[in-house]
Amino acid sequence: MMGERHIDQPALFYEFSLERHVPADHLLRSIDRFVDLCDIREQLRPYYSETGRPSIDPELMIRMLIIGYCMGIRSERRLCEEVHLNLAYRWFCRLGLEGTVPDHSTFSKNRHGRFRDSDLLRRLFEATVERCMAEGLVGGEGFAVDASMIKADANRQRSVPGDEGLPDEATGQAVRE
User: Fold this and answer.
1) CA 69/CA 36 separation, integer angstroms
2) Domain residue ranges in the chain
């Protein structure tokens, strides 16, 4: 016989841990072990004002961008929705259940403002490559370059025939460099 579930009284207190709800083999757990953003606030301090309302934590924004890149979420609007809903994403961003996800417009304002002015993203990339080299994931003995030269007839006033185009020396120079 199928019984009906009776709830006499709703729970007064709930115990919920994001830590327990993110699987041990989740990709973000593997990434989190290597992400060290402890000095990011100090690097960006000169680019923030001492007056006005509190800003969005730059570590949160970088962690959200990492999720976007790793999970193939190209839209910042969609990224904010996903972080709001997904427990593993909240865990990675250190948001907990009650943390507020920033508005999608915050990313473009910071990318075109203080992130660009401070050269933060380049430094993060370089630190990531250094860490990968230290861990033995990347070596410095070789590299790949895409120096493809594609002839284009984009100007109707100054048309270029198909056999003509960039001189071979320009192609060779790009490959040598």
Assistant:
1) 17
2) 18-134
DSSP string covering 39-73: THHHHHGGGS-SSSSPPPPHHHHHHHHHHHHHHT-
Dist CA 34 CA 31 (whole Å): 6
Cα 149–151–157 angle (5° rounding)?
A: 145
Q: What is the pLDDT of residues 53-110, one digit of tens each?
A: 888 888 999 999 999 999 999 999 999 999 999 999 999 999 989 999 999 998 888 8
Q: Is the Cβ–Cβ distance between 137 and 110 less than 8 Å?
A: no
Distances from the Cα of 168 to the Cα of 152, 165, 172, angstroms: 16, 9, 6
For the chain, helix (H) and strand (E) counts, in that order, are: 10, 0
- Specify the pTM: 0.68
